């Protein structure tokens, strides 16, 4: 199965189609120690190139920073990679975000492809060309829009994911269902969560999830590559999630888990503003619970939490852009919510 991402530098997402790839250039594979141990040998059998180098970094969101980028760049210079060389990001969203960013700045830009190994990266992070890293001010605040040449999602790599990782990927899929396609929520509700979380998934289920989400992402990115409108909707839950991840130093929650809490916070705000009815809010909460995703974060200081919104990339001219569901399969951007209404919602999480 192939899905086209129709942007300036169009490319395809291939689902379960990677057998062997041939490159007449040098190739560098960027991965991390966990993924390398599990799957690098398998990948190396599929990649044929002039020379193949591997850069394996430490595992974790806390390494998604400028220091690691510099270490990666230094190794690339030591390997004498040139402007025709190609980078392959082989890992979860942390690797695809960093690999894409490095590719966008190495000698002013080299080609890269993504081979995502988490569900989250297959359904979201590896597609659409958002690249970036965190710094002490917040999440993904440094980065670029830089599209890959291709994305290869292979369900064989997802078989080693823990139930927690699978659920985190599911959070981004639930996100897309809530904002774009209520019918997908029916599909998610009918999934057997025990089979799903214990990796007893049929390949058919996993591939259907990947296909549906890539199809939605392709539609959004093709219409709004640089996030001037429609693509902002994909940030549903993220305004809250980024604050939570930053406050917990990227250690306590997986990204998808923080997004799950963020979605519930956004739904609560939408409910309080009369944009969403209680039934939908409850339904989404129940679905998040079904996959053991968290929906509550104890806010210690409401003012501080509120102030942190202003460092978000979605804040323009001092106005916070909240992405809120306003019905099932529908979302809107609200930038005129009174501070007192936001605070009132945050207070429900004290
Ligand atoms: P991750 O990359 O940290 O991977 C999660 C964990 O799973 C890591 O410990 C990793 O080593 C491990 N892992 C990876 N593949 C594995 C496998 N096949 N088997 C066993 N373990 C495996 O996190 P993630 O959840 O994949 O991605 C989250 C990141 O993606 C965040 O930094 C987020 O900001 C970013 N993101 C980016 C976009 C985008 O559009 N660019 C979209 C969503 C998320
Ligand atoms: N993950 C949000 C986006 O790609 O826009």
TrEMBL record:
Its EC number is 4.2.3.4. It is found in: Cytoplasm. The keyword Cytoplasm applies. Zn(2+) binds at residues 172, 238, 255. SUPFAM superfamilies: Dehydroquinate synthase-like (SSF56796). The keyword Transmembrane helix applies. GO terms for molecular function: 3-dehydroquinate synthase activity. Pathway: Metabolic intermediate biosynthesis; chorismate biosynthesis; chorismate from D-erythrose 4-phosphate and phosphoenolpyruvate: step 2/7. It is an enzyme of class 4 (lyase). Residues 55-167 form the 3-dehydroquinate synthase N-terminal domain. NAD(+) binds at residues 59-64, 93-97, 117-118, 130, 139. InterPro entries: Dehydroquinate_synthase (IPR050071), DHQ_synth_AroB (IPR016037), DHQ_synth_fam (IPR030963), DHQS/DOIS_N (IPR030960), DHQS_C (IPR056179). Pfam families: DHQ_synthase, DHQS_C. Keywords: Amino-acid biosynthesis, Aromatic amino acid biosynthesis, Cobalt, Cytoplasm, Lyase, Membrane, Metal-binding, NAD, Nucleotide-binding, Transmembrane, Transmembrane helix, Zinc. The chain crosses the membrane at residues 86-106. Residues 169-315 form the 3-dehydroquinate synthase C-terminal domain. Its cofactor is NAD(+); Co(2+); Zn(2+). Binds 1 divalent metal cation per subunit. Can use either Co(2+) or Zn(2+). It catalyses: 7-phospho-2-dehydro-3-deoxy-D-arabino-heptonate = 3-dehydroquinate + phosphate. Catalyzes the conversion of 3-deoxy-D-arabino-heptulosonate 7-phosphate (DAHP) to dehydroquinate (DHQ). Belongs to the sugar phosphate cyclases superfamily. Dehydroquinate synthase family. This is 3-dehydroquinate synthase. The lineage of its organism: Bacteria, Pseudomonadati, Campylobacterota, Epsilonproteobacteria, Campylobacterales.
């Amino acid at each position: 199965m192939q899905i086209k991402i129709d942007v300036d530098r169009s490319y395809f997402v291939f689902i379960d189609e990677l057998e062997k790839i041939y490159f007449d250039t040098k190739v560098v594979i960027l991965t991390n120690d966990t993924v390398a141990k599990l799957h690098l040998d398998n990948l190396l059998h599929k990649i044929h190139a002039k020379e193949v180098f591997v850069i394996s970094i430490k595992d974790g969101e806390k390494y998604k920073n400028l220091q690691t980028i510099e270490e990666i760049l230094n190794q690339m210079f030591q390997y004498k990679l040139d402007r025709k060389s190609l980078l392959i990001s082989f890992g979860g969203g942390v690797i695809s975000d960093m690999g894409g960013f490095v590719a966008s700045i190495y000698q002013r830009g080299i080609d890269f492809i993504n081979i995502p190994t988490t569900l989250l990266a297959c359904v979201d992070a590896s597609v659409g060309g958002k690249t970036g890293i965190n710094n002490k001010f917040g999440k993904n605040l440094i980065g670029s829009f830089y599209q890959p040449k291709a994305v290869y999602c292979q369900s064989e790599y997802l078989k080693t994911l823990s139930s927690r990782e699978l659920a985190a990927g599911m959070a981004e899929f639930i996100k897309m269902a809530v904002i774009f396609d209520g019918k997908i929520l029916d599909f998610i509700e009918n999934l057997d969560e025990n089979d799903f979380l214990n990796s007893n998934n049929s390949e058919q289920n996993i591939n259907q999830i990947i296909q549906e989400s890539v199809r939605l992402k392709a539609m959004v990115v093709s219409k709004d590559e640089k996030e001037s409108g429609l693509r902002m909707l994909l940030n549903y839950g993220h305004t809250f999630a980024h604050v939570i991840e930053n406050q917990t130093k990227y250690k306590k929650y997986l990204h998808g888990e923080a997004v799950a809490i963020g979605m519930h916070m956004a739904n609560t705000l939408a409910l309080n503003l009369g944009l969403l009815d209680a039934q939908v809010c409850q339904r989404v909460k129940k679905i998040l619970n079904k996959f053991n995703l968290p929906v509550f974060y104890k806010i210690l200081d409401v003012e501080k939490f509120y102030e942190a919104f202003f460092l978000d990339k979605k804040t323009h001219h001092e106005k916070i852009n909240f992405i809120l569901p306003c019905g099932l399969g529908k979302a809107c951007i609200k930038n005129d919510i009174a501070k007192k209404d936001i605070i009132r919602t945050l207070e429900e999480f004290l």
